[in-house]
Amino acid sequence: MGRGIDSFLGVAVTEVVLGVGGGIAAYKACELLRLFTESGHGVRVVPTASALQFVGAPTWAALSGRPVATEVWDDVHEVPHVRIGRAAELVVVAPATADLLAKAAHGIADDLLTNTLLTATCPIVYAPAMHTEMWENPATRANVATLRARGAVVIEPAVGRLTGKDTGKGRLPDPFEIFELAQRVLKRGLDLDLRGRHVVVTAGGTREPLDPVRFLGNRSSGKQGYALAKAAAARGARTTLIAANVTLPDPAGVELIRVGTTEELRAATVKAAAEADVIVMAAAPADFRPVTVAAEKIKKTDSGTPAPIELTTNPDIAAELGAAKREGQVLVAFAAETHDALENARAKLIKKRADLIVVNEVGVDRVFGADHNEVTLLGADGSTAVHAELPKDDVADMIWDRVAVLLDGQVGGGEPARVR
What we know:
Blueprint: E1 15-20, H1 29-38, E2 42-47, H2 57-64, H3 80-87, E3 90-96, H4 98-106, H5 112-119, E4 124-128, H6 132-136, H7 138-149, E5 153-154, E6 158-161, E7 167-171, H8 175-188, E8 198-204, E9 208-209, E10 215-216, H9 223-234, E11 238-244, E12 254-259, H10 262-273, E13 278-281, E14 288-290, E15 311-313, H11 317-323, E16 330-337, H12 341-351, E17 356-361, E18 372-373, E19 376-379, E20 384-386, E21 390-391, H13 392-408
Parallel strand pairs: 1-2, 1-3, 3-4, 4-5, 8-11, 8-13, 11-12, 13-16, 16-17
Antiparallel strand pairs: 6-7, 9-10, 14-15, 17-19, 18-21, 19-20
Helix pairs in contact: 1-2, 1-8, 3-5, 4-7, 8-9, 9-13
């Protein structure tokens, strides 16, 4: 896979229960099981009877190195329907069918897996997989809302090929993405401080077409925005990720909206922000766009001197959101600067009416495309926190830590913080 899993995020070896529902995506759970076992976790697979129609018990036993049971009557002297749930430090259900989500939401316990879900006191992650119509059915949506309200992490299914010729939302996310999110949940435990919140995160760089083959853009990779979206989902938030020209794998647990230009980014963000608790503007919109877009490829002139391209200024999305911000809504802006970073960022903080602005100095081979980031957080309350270089995943959690405090209304005055 090219992505290491040993000691992922520094999480110690734990006891994981992998629940497998009766859907065609059950075969993908084999890869998820391998990721957990190869990272050193002990895994007990608890499939439903229907799941065994897709992948047999010998496969689960061979891959996990542990016996597999589906009934509460198996090894009844060990009271498995209570013991398995009590021993678990994390439960991941993948695929979670509509039937399983309904049973979990209503406390129905008619097999070993649903009994385990009732007795588990650890974090539970559900990875739904079903046809689009089933996912969008009001009954399923109500069950998902119930489970999320109780503290479970129900991740958004992916969009793609389903069974047969069908395509749409309902596909099981990539196993590695489920694994990564599960590890983040495991790291935080039951501290889901964004539970019940809707957050919108933008990522990547917009592109403004010059002609059918050329565009005006920037170097943003979207890595920091994706890290923010993944971290929010792991902290229990309903997460909408608006991605501009990003080639990263689709993260599990988020609603992904793809855009290309700054105007497309603006339209999608303004729409999503209408019901959001938090908006994090991590994308890098192009500041300018051509006044006109050539219908054909622009050719070199005989003189060798290119014709001038007239530019116009794109809308300031963050400023528009700041002006329309509701009471209690939190806006986080980003300032990528090549010089005078703090001075420019403080001006942007005021202009955009943001609650927090994340400042970093950028350039060739610096920040854009890198896995680490060095940032300063400027708060509307006058606070300043300078952070040395950290992995972008850690930067994301640091930003959400600050946002969680803002949401709780606990921000006060005092001396600016300085962290090194």
